[in-house]
Amino acid sequence: MPQHGPSLLTPFSGTKRAGTRTAAYCFPLLERPIHSSSLCLPPLRFEICALWSSPSFLSRLLLQLGFRNSDPLPLWLHQLRLFRKLSLLKKRSIAAHPWHDLEIGPGAPKIFNCVIEIPKGSKVKYELDKKTGLIKVDRILYSSVVYPHNYGFIPRTLCEDNDPLDVLIIMQEPVVPGCFLRAKAIGLMPMIDQGEKDDKIIAVCADDPEYRHYQDIKDLPPHRLAEIRRFFEDYKKNENKEVAVDDFLPASAAYDAIQHSMDLYADYIVESLRR
Predict the structure, then answer these.
(1) Residue among 155, 243, 146 nearest 201 (CA)
(2) Which region holds residue 39: left if phi is over 0, alpha if psi is between -120 and 50, else beta?
(3) 50: closest CA among 93, 87, 4, 10?
(4) Which residues lie below 8 Å from residue 150, measured CB to CB, with a gap of 6+?
(5) Mean pLDDT score of the chain, rounded to an integer?
(6) Would the CA dihedral through 164, 170, 174, 180 be positive or negative?
(7) Residues classed as catalytic
(8) CA distance 120 to 171
(9) Measured between alpha carbons, how far is 125 from 96 in angstroms, rounded to an integer?
(10) Which DSSP symbol is given to 125?
(11) What is the spatial distance between Cα 84 and Cα 55, in angstroms, rounded to a whole number?
(12) Is the peptide bond before 148 cis (omega within 30 degrees of 0)?
């Protein structure tokens, strides 16, 4: 039966590259020698098992243990290979949550990242599924209207209704649900939806050459504001839901609303960690 040698517990010579952890530097992490009678793994630190399962390291390890090419593979080698596959599968299955994992951006509250839920011209009401982070179909609009501009939310913000802050982004083209872009706040549309506050940030795409020079809500043509207002007043009428839209407010009001929602989100995270 092959026996382990002392070199198994000692790093072999080599140069460690900055920012990497090679197999050579994992040898000292063994807590006790490999039991050659059972060919079972010793208790290793869990996080290095994936490194130990790399083909180059396993080849060197088998040679040090005295295995030849004709020898059958030990059980623990199959276990390591299975662990490697499961580790890779686990990494691939962890998706970023657009609300919590996407940064709002260093320019907030003036310029910020936003996630698109509904493209311009759509009659489908998409929305974020807060549990999974996926974009789901909420409903088809009852009224004969379509969204006049791209619509979404600002990540790492929180409003009184426990949702992220909504934003309407004015730009030339519709974009696909689930993507994110840089937006610049130019105003605030105060809105009451069925008796609850549901304000909307009015923004332009910061990377659209036609709109990026806009600085305030007053820069928009009056008919554009009327179009936006009329859409939100009408899009729920056939559902017997009441929506009231107030006068548009300037960019400074939008900055305050975004900052307030950022503060609420930060408080929410702190409270969640305490619990």
Answers:
(1) 155
(2) left
(3) 87
(4) 116, 118, 119, 120, 168, 169, 171, 174, 175
(5) 79
(6) negative
(7) 147
(8) 9
(9) 22
(10) E
(11) 11
(12) no
Helix (H) or strand (E) holding 233, with range, is helix 222-234
Residue with tokens 């593979």: 73
| Whether the Cβ atoms of residue 249 and residue 201 lie closer than 8 Å to each other | no
Query: What are the DSSP calls for 75-104, one per residue?
Result: HHHHHHHHHHHHHHHHHHH-PPPTTTTS--
Which DSSP helix (H) or strand (E) runs through 225? Answer: helix 222-234
CB atoms under 10 Å from CB of 184, counted, come to 23
The vertex-89 CA angle with 73 and 23, nearest 5°, equals 55
pLDDT at res. 212? 95
Lowest-pLDDT choice from 65-69, 134-138, 173-177, 195-199: 65-69
Q: Is the pLDDT of residue 173 over 50?
A: yes
The CA distance from 78 to 45, in Å, is 18
H or E element at residue 111: strand 111-118
Would you say the C-alpha torsion 269, 266, 176, 238 has a positive or negative sign? positive
